[in-house]
């Protein structure tokens, strides 16, 4: 794929499932908005480059378009688990948490009483906050408020592993809710991860993720003592639906004893 100009760069911890799939979500949005984009991990960063030679294709312009785009509840009768629609120019339906046939519902990390629409809209409303504060995209953690009623806080989906130690009272020794505590949320990571987890039927080669990894010949040389062999860039294509080895890395906690 031919790309134009310097790529967008984002600092990322690819070992955090939330940040990994947030990068997939960001690439999905860039591909839809810019009619093609290429993304890759390298070192501690994730990079996106459009494949069209038009000006103004920046991270700020991409997230501004996402922020301005309507996020709609598809099923008016089901606020708890309704599919979501990210309107034009993205035209993206999100409903993987309802997909029992392909196993998408197994990735559901939030409690049954949590309102998917309310959580997603609260995160969508603040997706530009990190850039507005001149902070790295995935670094900002703030208490998340309900845009429909700012007096109420909103809990996350728990995709981001920085909230893992606070996901259950047994993990920290007390209940934050009982103490009236509010805990920060990495809302941008969580919202983009919601998108990144969604498979795209018929677009099996959409997410092109370049990883720095030795080629087979380099691995062979290393086993034979070739310690100075330089690593080569390999391409990993993540098909839709998400393959089992990747989906297994994002686990749910279904019992206090697990």
* Largest sheet: spatial strand order: 1-3-2-9-10
Question: Overall pLDDT, averaged?
Answer: 74
| Count of strand segments | 10
Helix fraction, binned, reads 25-40%
Q: How many structurally independent domains?
A: 1
Strand % is: 15-25%
Enumerate the spans where pLDDT stays under 50 for 5 or more consecutive residues. 204-258
> How far do the termini sit from each other?
44 Å
- Give the C-alpha Rg: 19 Å
| Element order: H for helix, E for strand | EHEEHEEEHHEEHHEHEH
Which class do the helix and strand fractions yield? alpha+beta
Defining traits:
26% helix; 5-stranded mixed beta sheet; 258 residues; alpha+beta
Account of the protein in words:
- The protein is α+β, with helices and mostly antiparallel strands and 258 residues long.
- The protein has one domain (8-247).
- Helices cover 26% and strands 18% of the residues.
- A hairpin with a 5-residue loop joins strand 5 (84-86) and strand 6 (92-94).
- The N and C termini lie far apart (44 Å).
Q: What is the structure about, briefly put?
A:
The chain has 258 residues and is α+β, with helices and mostly antiparallel strands. It has helices spanning 17-33, 59-68, 116-125, 129-132, 169-172, 187-196, 216-223, 244-247; strands spanning 8-11, 37-42, 45-50, 71-73, 84-86, 92-94, 145-146, 149-153, 207-213, 232-238.
Task: Indicate the topology.
Layout: E1 8-11, H1 17-33, E2 37-42, E3 45-50, H2 59-68, E4 71-73, E5 84-86, E6 92-94, H3 116-125, H4 129-132, E7 145-146, E8 149-153, H5 169-172, H6 187-196, E9 207-213, H7 216-223, E10 232-238, H8 244-247
Parallel strand pairs: 2-9
Antiparallel strand pairs: 1-3, 2-3, 4-5, 5-6, 7-8, 9-10
